[in-house]
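Re: weekly structure request thread

Next one in the queue (268 aa):
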Amino acid sequence: MAVKGRRAKQRQRNHFLVAILFVALIVAAVGAFAFFKLQAQPAPNAANLCPAEGPRGHYVLLVDKTDPLSFTQKQAFNVFLEDLVKKRVPEGYLLSVFVLGEDFKSTAEPLVELCNPGTGENKSALTSNVQRARRTYEEKFIKPLLSQAEALQSTEPAKQSPILEMVQLVAITGFRKHDVQGERRLFLMSDMLHNAASLSMYRSTPAYKEFAETDYGRKTKSDLSNVDVELQYLLNAPKLQTRRNLLFWEHYFIDSGAQLRQVQPLEG
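Done, posted below.
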């Protein structure tokens, strides 16, 4: 009986060792799978954080700094910028930031262009380095974009505000340059009072149809095909910023292939 007992205990130990070995093999297999999956994933673009296959969508922010913001407008602008960067740009989307100054030629290129790399919150810890993803998101996406707040504001009024030329450049060096096939959206912060030698809306805003037939109208026409436009409307001169002014821009965007989806007056 003692011999049978010892044999039974030995079998139990053997079964226990086999079970431990089996579990160890499973853990090793899962670890190897996670490792090779991480290695197989194409690395994002190191320069702009975009997915290896390219951006999934393209958002462009154009800020008119030809007039200083009031104290209240600055607060509203900072809230808008933070909301856009932290909440509205989807993961994998490219955000290009442009500024409109008196000399549109000097601001033809974006101040910064970055894709949202994601926070890592929706990724598995087995197949992703969640902490590193969060650190990349905070240090290489959020901080560089929010640090542009001062560069997007002016302290002195400019003599000209070439909005038409700047929108045209954004269409070329923003949307056309990257040719992203996903969602395309333009966030425009301006009083929309174009002011240049060929057209000054401080004198009057023409009907768009008449303007479009002029040499200047043809010269400044843009290609904003399949772009949704959201306007943060700076109310700097309410007497001039009438329904006629908004109708001009609404027809301008339609003629450019875009749609003016939202007009949000900016407080102050």
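The helical segments are 2-40, 71-88, 130-146, 163-178, 208-212, 215-219, 243-255. The chain is about 40% helix and 15% strand.
Next request, please.
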